[in-house]
């Protein structure tokens, strides 16, 4: 794989190094500096000319810093005559801004997609976008992976004879149903309403959870308010045990501490699409690696092979 060049931004270099280890290629060095006027400067410190360049950068806090850094990396690769630039974005935080649900607001998911293409991205590799329509915001090819297989492999180690997968809302019910099919278990979903003050209410759970082992599945957990509200409904309905799973474990504003403090939550499972600080971890947290899946997708993209086996819904 001589013609490949993989660079990492500063958002999650550990994941980039793990992807490169699975690919068997070195992680090419890059440099990020800040001028006295607070502007960023990025230099890719390896040859890009006529190479297949992959830039690994999840959009995590500080999101705007990491976004500008990624845009500058794309521009640097384009200016260095890269033959193709693939943005590997394990977490696309602006995917939540996917619709105009109030007057005079921007659709940030589409705008940031346009910025990435304008900066030189010729392809995007993403993991578990918040909404399916975000895929269509990009005017370049997008390979959309999911972490359901990695999560399913983990939960197959348990007795699943009385298990129900529960989606916190109807918007994620399709993914929860696909996950339940992988495990061969039942599925249920919460009826969620979000209020203007960002308060969340789940009025009921559609499906059977009484005296059952529940796996709550969501695409990401940020503040954790939705999951905590769902836990109250599950307790009222008599769930036997509760485990929580997600792809993107953002755990903002003390969410992980609030979840682990719930005595009936036995386990919290996420992947390493975003970095989880060591100080925020607990004995209940399990972090699964999606580096092998990303590395295989990168290899297939580079070799011109089909990626459909990795990103098609099960």
Q: Beta-strand percentage?
A: 25-35%
- Listing every helix as H and every strand as E from the N terminus to the C terminus, the arrangement reads EHEEEEHEHEEHEHEEEHEHEEHH
Helix/strand-derived category reads alpha/beta
The residue ranges in which pLDDT falls below 50 over 5 or more consecutive positions are: none
Largest sheet: 7 strands, mixed
Q: Work out the radius of gyration.
A: 20 Å
What is the number of helical segments per DSSP (H or I, 4+ residues)? 9
Helicity, as a percent range:
25-40%
How many E strands?
15
Measured distance between first and last alpha carbons: 30 Å
Strand order of the largest sheet: 11-10-9-12-13-14-15
In round numbers, the mean pLDDT is 93
Shape: globular
Detailed description of the structure:
The strands form 3 sheets. This protein has a 7-stranded mixed beta sheet. It has a 6-stranded parallel beta sheet with strand order 2-1-5-6-7-8, with helices on both faces. Strands 3-4 form a two-stranded antiparallel sheet. The mean pLDDT is 93. It has 9 helices and 15 strands. Strand 1, helix 1 and strand 2 form a beta-alpha-beta unit. It is α/β, with parallel strands linked by helices. The longest helix has 17 residues.
């Amino acid at each position: 794989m001589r013609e490949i060049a993989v660079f990492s931004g500063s958002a999650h270099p550990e994941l980039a190094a793990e992807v490169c280890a699975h690919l068997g290629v070195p992680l090419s060095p890059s440099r990020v500096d800040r001028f006295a006027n607070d502007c960023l400067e990025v230099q890719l410190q390896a040859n890009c000319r006529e190479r297949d360049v992959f830039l690994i950068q999840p959009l995590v806090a500080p999101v705007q810093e990491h976004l500008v850094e990624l845009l500058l990396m794309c521009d640097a690769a384009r200016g260095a005559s890269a033959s193709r630039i693939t943005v590997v974005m394990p977490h696309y935080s602006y995917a939540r801004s996917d619709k105009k649900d109030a007057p005079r607001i921007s659709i940030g998911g589409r705008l940031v997609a346009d910025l990435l293409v304008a900066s030189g991205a010729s392809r995007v590799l993403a993991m578990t976008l918040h909404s399916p329509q975000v895929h269509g915001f990009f005017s370049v090819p997008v390979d959309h992976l999911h972490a359901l297989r990695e999560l399913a492999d983990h939960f197959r180690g348990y007795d699943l004879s009385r298990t129900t997968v529960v989606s916190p809302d109807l918007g994620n019910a399709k993914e929860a149903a696909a996950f339940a099919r992988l495990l061969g278990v039942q599925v249920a979903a919460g009826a969620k309403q979000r209020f203007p003050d960002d308060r969340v209410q789940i009025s009921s759970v559609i499906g059977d959870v009484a005296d059952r082992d529940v796996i709550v599945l969501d695409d990401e957990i940020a503040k954790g308010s939705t999951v905590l509200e769902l836990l109250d409904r599950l307790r009222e309905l008599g769930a036997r045990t509760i485990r929580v799973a997600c792809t993107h474990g953002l755990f903002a504003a003390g969410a992980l501490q609030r979840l682990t403090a719930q005595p009936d939550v036995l386990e919290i499972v996420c992947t390493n699409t975003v970095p989880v600080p060591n100080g925020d971890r607990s004995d209940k947290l399990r972090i699964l690696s999606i580096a092998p899946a990303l590395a295989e997708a990168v290899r297939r993209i580079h070799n011109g092979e089909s990626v459909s086996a990795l990103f098609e819904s099960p």
